[in-house]
Amino acid sequence: MSYQSLARKYRPHTFSDLIGQEPTAEALGNAIRLKREPSAVLFSGVRGVGKTTTARLYAKALNCGERRDGEPCDRCPSCLSINEGIHEDVLEIDGASHNGVDEVRELQELLAYVNQRSPYKVFIIDEVHMLSINAFNALLKTLEEPPPRVVFILATTNLNKVPQTIIGRCQTFHLQKIALAAIVGRLQTILSSEGIPYEEKALHLIAKEGQGSLRDALTFLDQVIALGQGEVTMARLEHFLTQVSNEVYLKLLAALIHRDGKTCLGLVEGLELRGVSYGQVLEELATLARHGFILRDLAAEIPSASAFGLDQQELNQLLRLAQQAPVLELNRLFRCLLRCKQELDGSALDRFVVENSLLEWCLDPGMPSTADLLRFSQGQGNVQPPPEQRRSLRPQQELPKPPQNEEAGPLSSSTPSRQEPPASKTMPASWAELVALWKKHQPLEARKLEEVVLLTYTAELIEVAVSPSSIIGPQLLRADYQQKISQSLADLFGFQGRFRAKAATSAHNANESLLDEKTRSIKIKQDQANDAALSHPLTKGLVNTLGGKILRVQVRE
User: Fold this and answer.
1) pTM attached to this predicted model
2) Which of 131, 287, 460, 462 registers the highest number of CB atoms within 10 A of its CB?
3) What is the pLDDT, as a whole number, of residue 300?
4) Which domain holds residue 199?
5) Exposure of 302 by Cβ count < 10 A (0-12 exposed, 13-18 middle, 19+ buried)?
6) Looking at the structure, do residues 69 and 144 belong to the same domain, yes or no?
């Protein structure tokens, strides 16, 4: 007897054997148990996740005479015939090669024949999206009102190409990619049954090669067993994998965290010799950077290493690397790698694009830390990149020092045109004068106070009202922000009292803010200019001479 591949030999024979599609298996089993079997089912999903296998299991469960709780027995003649593909009442059709309207009509003619030995006649149409539009139209009525005891099972890898009229007549199940841990567990079970020695680390690489497809992983496992002369080892595996072990990517991530450009170039050289896709390299690196970013703050809440597709040793190594990175560093690296991937075009220059991006990351002095940015915003000193980020082949680049102003206070703003505060710290005579003087020193902060309504202006208390729904309202109503304004007023004008902001009420609407006064003053000037222009003798003379009518007046200063 010829050799049977592992994917065929270990194909699931019952719903309980189905890996990674437990919700779908449970739904179908319950439908059979409750005698609510759908007559038209559509399975969608990527290759190798079990669409055809699930379709056969559903056909077996429908026709099994000894099923229990919706599970086929896998022992009766009907189940065994379906396993071998020779059941008279279960017909499998390839949609790619039988995609015309004539083939669909031939199928419909078979519906008139009585079932030969089973309760249900089952038609399984694989890759149904390959049918022509006319074929789909011919199938519509049959799907909506099939003859008694007839079930249609459709499978597709491209649900978008299936007309909505077909989807609407089927119960649709989306089969997900199979989790890495589930594939590894299945590989272990199969190798144990075959009596083949293996290294668990190698199984993780084989599972990754499947990319969510158990069938692809088993096909690759067959190849690995043949190459390894009956064993599955890392030594044999790494020479022809398109996937690279996480160990290589962790080394590359460590080099990026420590800004080691030389090591990055050496690792990229090794990947080039292996023929690994640079898009794949960037995806794996970005994924590890993302996982490290999460691990840095949420390590205690991570349920297991399998949540990240890593073994425990790799997870511990990634956690150590993440703890060595500054705050937000891995998130910045993640975004940098994504930008680099967008620049790839599949040409021979891809290697240089990747190398240049990695070197740019390593040689750049880096972003300042969050603590440095806070001190810089408060005018408390110079900002430097973290020490481990200062290595560079070019001269050290320092961020500009903040303007030196000892009296700026905690509200000092990094605006380009800051002026010295008044020489004498005396309170201005009016609120308008205070805001005008403050505006010369801190225009952005003073501009906010032009929108408030003044309630009290004394040496002990400055009280204003502001609408909570305005842009500045939520900020000015915070107690900590009011304290900062008080401190700035003390620094600029020697104010020793208290600044307080309260939510404006309807009683405050009659009062004007400085901005309202300015707007009203501008409006008055514009009206006066318009009136002067209209009453000017030249204007009147032109109107009388031309017999025209003035529609709008625009005065240019």
Assistant:
1) 0.55
2) 131
3) 54
4) 180-237
5) middle
6) yes
